[in-house]
């Protein structure tokens, strides 16, 4: 009896201590963020007044950055500096790269899902993984293997799914869902040698894909909380969203561990997937899991996001779709049913321009943040205190007249062409694939995948939006995801 009473007293004191600590920590956090800031930006953010005029937070930020003389703003209540100034971007990603790492605050948000993966670390761990990934992803046989996977997925699954909906009355297909399934199957085959089968004709529910989606979504939502203390307390007590996140990550881990264990008992020297290649140099299975899960995250959602908004733009600009078809007919012939080869894709400059122009307006990753290690001053004169979050905003940068001219809001692939040849631009003006030392290693492979998928569908099908006048809204997440999907009608083309 006495022991039981003592136990309850200890538990009571424990909860009182935790509650007191939480209140004090939250108070210090709020004091540091200056929640009382009366500036127009902070008041509009705190009250959500911005939503009266803008459908998406990224559009409001774009509006503010367009009005700023320096292309930089402060959101005091978030302790965040946001910039669309190319000189600042180059300074962060190249000139003073070491002073603007991902930082522990960012790493803790995604740490449970990504662990020590390349997208969640700095320093020697990042350098080691980048060097290793660079050697693999620049390997010609790896590029060929990835291309073969995508081509096979298009022929055996993407086309049959589209054909099954073609011409059907009320046969509405969610294009975003299809692209997410397609890219998940493709990246899992490439990364693990695993086929989740998400794009089979029945469009089955994949337990792995659902768990992975949920883990990504809930991890991203951590960044939206008023204080990291909130989600950390929920994680400590295994409550609410943190309980769901733990369960989702557990399922992802179980599958990853089973795959790695299975491959350890095989001769992986003849296997071409990334996991098998990495296993020849890494003995730490948990580290392997972190590395490959990071590649799945990067290669799945970004591709699906880019393809979704590309077809959304094409639906409003049919002349661009016609120009892509005409170009492909010149390169491939008008009657061929074959998919484009790697060499033929390189000859299609207008297609390349259209894909880049689409991502200028709708980058898959709308913003990216770093944390300043030591007091600094950006090239535009903005003072940055140690520990401050600094965000560069590719979505807003694609809408800056100072970078793209007065027609910056127009979808014009021609701006990327010079005498009919695709021309590259300053990567710090177009940081869709990041730039500087952290530039995306899979950039070229991603572009090839986007182009072959887009071209194949454009040549085989007519695609029209089911709700052409609906307002485009994005859901919060690590990548740009269209809220409620992208419903379309599909018709097979008569060639």
Automatic annotation (TrEMBL):
Keywords for this protein: Heme, Iron, Membrane, Metal-binding, Oxidoreductase, Transmembrane, Transmembrane helix
TM spans (from-to): 6-31
Keyword Amino-acid biosynthesis attached: no
Cofactor(s) needed for function: heme
Topology class, membrane: Single-pass membrane protein
Recorded superkingdom: Eukaryota
Molecular function per GO: heme binding; iron ion binding; monooxygenase activity; oxidoreductase activity, acting on paired donors, with incorporation or reduction of molecular oxygen
Entry coiled-coil feature ranges: none
One Gene Ontology cellular component: membrane
Record flagged with keyword Transmembrane: yes
Family (UniProt): Belongs to the cytochrome P450 family.
Protein name: Cytochrome P450
